[in-house]
Amino acid sequence: MESRTDSAIDSALSYGRIDVGVLVIGAGAAGARTAIELVDNGVSVDDVLVLGKRNHGDAHTTWARGGINGALGTHDAEDSWAIHAADTLNEGHHINDPAKVETVARQLPDRLRELDEWGMAFSRTEDGEIDQRYFGAQSFRRTAFAGDHTGESLLDTLVDQAQQRSIPYRENVMVTKLLSDGDQVYGAVGFDMADGEFLLFNAGTVVLAAGGYASLYNRHTSRDDENNGDGPALAYDAGASLMDMEFVQFHPTGMAVDETDPDWEPWDGRLVTEAVRGEGGRLYNADGERFMKRYSPDQMELDARDVVARAIAQEIAEGRGTENGGVFLDISHRDRQFIQTRLPRMYERFAGLGVDMAEEPVEVAPAAHYGMGGVVVDDNGETEIDGLFAIGETMAGVHGANRLGGNSLAETVAFGTVTGRRIASEGAEPGALPDSIVGGIAEPHMAHLDALADSPGKYDVDTVFTELQELLWEHAGILRGGDRLSAGLDELTRLQTKASDLEVGPITSESFEFAMDLGFMLLTAEAVLRGALERAESRGAHYRTDHPDERDGWRRNITAKRADLGGMALATEPVGSPSEGVQAALEEGHKLEYHQLE
Ligand SMILES: Cc1cc2nc3c(=O)[nH]c(=O)nc-3n(C[C@H](O)[C@H](O)[C@H](O)COP(=O)(O)OP(=O)(O)OC[C@H]3O[C@@H](n4cnc5c(N)ncnc54)[C@H](O)[C@@H]3O)c2cc1C
After folding, report:
1. Is 223 a known active-site residue?
2. From ligand 1's centre to the CA of 28, what distance in Å?
3. The pLDDT of residue 12
4. Which residue of 210, 279, 293, 556 lies most exposed, with the fewest beta carbons within 10 A?
């Protein structure tokens, strides 16, 4: 139900008020799957509202390329959910939450079959089964895919299902604050990015499915205006805890381009899907050496992302990189038709830039790709704030110190289902938003946003935004040292000061949106830097040059929470134990036989 309200604190400030049972913030795969599960479990569509910053069907999920994991065993009958879980724990260096890993691995075979029934355009074997391919560091061919546009196909399918159920979706809404008293959530505040109207959502349950934080880095594979840490920052501000924020996955193969060439420059850092290596792509340095032999003689190009990314970074640092600061990725030993069928988008993209993948290599270098950390949630996706759930890339726990390729799409549909079911089982009553929260939090926040619009401040938003991304790359990149991390925190304080004096356009302008993003990013960046400094060891994607070894004593998760007296308080938590079935799979010691790939 929607109504208009004139604010008590400022007669010029009015806002729309929307009362709803469950507010789903985010319409990528995680948000869409949650909404479907809610409705399929008896929640009325009148009690659900999904919203996102973009048009319906346009979320970051569409950029996922290579695939989604699930132990269907299409080719490798010996694969099982338990081995999927074991691979995930091994890749996460055993600081993942085993219960969450198990939820994902157990669910996925059914979730994939369900997506198939719903019409997802999976690539198929000759006898019509869902095809599965190798992805880095997985024991079997477990990654189902739709060519190299798996995310787009997944989200199209989910949006279609949501529309068939008439689930309401509101486009172009940016949420800027959750309404919480620190114990319970009451809704959210945001604005309509098209017409600038302020919006107050009164909701008994809020599902935060607002994506991750990899765009904190200047060289990243995400869409430029996504993955700015909105989800973790909103939850933290509401009183929830963050976890594992120091673990940022650097994908080994972002595009390395001639930045002075206007045709190539926009492609800098864009993902070259892992599927290129999964389908047999080989890495060479500028001397023509297949250098992975020195770093990982057994797994070669298909070793874990952190291992391959560090190897490439090392080759470049030691002067064996290309002129564009990368290395070569070559799949030209495969025939043209194979490449066009298995990697159609990659083939077309490079062909459009004048490079024929069937004849020549492409240039690649690491780029920030995925934040393994996020919001602390229980087994149903609920945070420590009653009624506030966080799922998909916004949540923490599944990936530990490093993420298996294909596991994040898996996480979105697994936890979308679990969370949707949980909320439905508890009922989705409209919220009872107390006046004290409206007058004490919501309206002052809107007044603050109103004052920020058209501010003639001293600093350009874009410039501070870029400075922050460069800071993260320089101080908390692939290779991190304690001194640089400390210096990064000092620099961050300087940027926080600048961010309080920004030149911002009207509320519907891009600069206003970026000013909001910048606030989310500053907070998330602080959690990354502090976590990385605290973790005095190397584990998975987190490599400390001054502490290069993994240490048993650090088999703990670092959490960050707003301290009562202000500031960010860090703590560490022990990790749980795997179930018997998963422990047995771990002890069996499965791993990829490299010769299978030739
Ligand atoms: C280039 C690339 C390729 C990838 N390929 C794969 C792959 O092959 N396999 C795999 O498993 N994973 C892959 N991933 C990761 C995967 O795409 C993501 O983890 C996953 O899609 C996240 O889905 P999500 O629903 O959690 O979030 P998203 O798809 O990011 O959706 C977030 C939603 O939240 C909304 N939102 C955000 N902030 C706000 C706000 N403040 N107010 C209102 N709405 C907001 C957005 O508009 C959007 O609707 C890839 C990632 C990248 C960058």
Report:
1. no
2. 6
3. 64
4. 293
Residue 460, Cβ density class (10 Å: 0-12 exposed, 13-18 middle, ≥19 buried)? middle
**Ligand 1 atom index nearest CA of 393:** 26
Task: Single out the catalytic residue among 17, 142, 170, 251.
Answer: 251
Mean pLDDT over the full length of the chain:
94
- The answer to whether 162 touches 169, Cβ cutoff 8 Å, is yes
State which of 56, 58, 60 you would mutate to test the pocket of ligand 1, scoring each by most atoms of that ligand within 8 A of its C-beta: 60
pLDDT digits (tens, 9 = 90+) for 129-178: 999 988 877 899 999 999 889 999 999 999 999 999 999 999 999 999 99
How does pLDDT run across 520-539, given as a tens digit for each residue? 999 999 999 999 999 999 99
- Protein residue closest via CA to atom 44 of ligand 1: 52
CA 146 to chain centre: 20
Looking at ligand 1, which atom is closest to the CA of residue 408? 11
* Contact 276 CB / ligand 1 (< 6 Å): no
Determine what percent of the chain is predicted with pLDDT higher than 90.
88
CB 179 within 8 A of CB 185: yes
For 23-78, the pLDDT digits (tens) are 999 999 999 999 999 999 999 999 999 999 999 899 999 999 889 999 999 999 99
- Closest by alpha carbon to 594, among 392, 300, 352, 320? 300
Question: What's the rounded Cα separation, in Å, for the pair 307 and 292?
Answer: 9
Q: Is the CB of 59 under 6 A from ligand 1?
A: yes
State the Cα–Cα distance between residues 278 and 250, nearest whole angstrom: 17
Q: Is 393 in the pocket of ligand 1 (CB under 6 A)?
A: yes
Q: What's the pTM? A: 0.94
For residue 48 and ligand 1, the question of a CB distance below 6 A is answered with: no
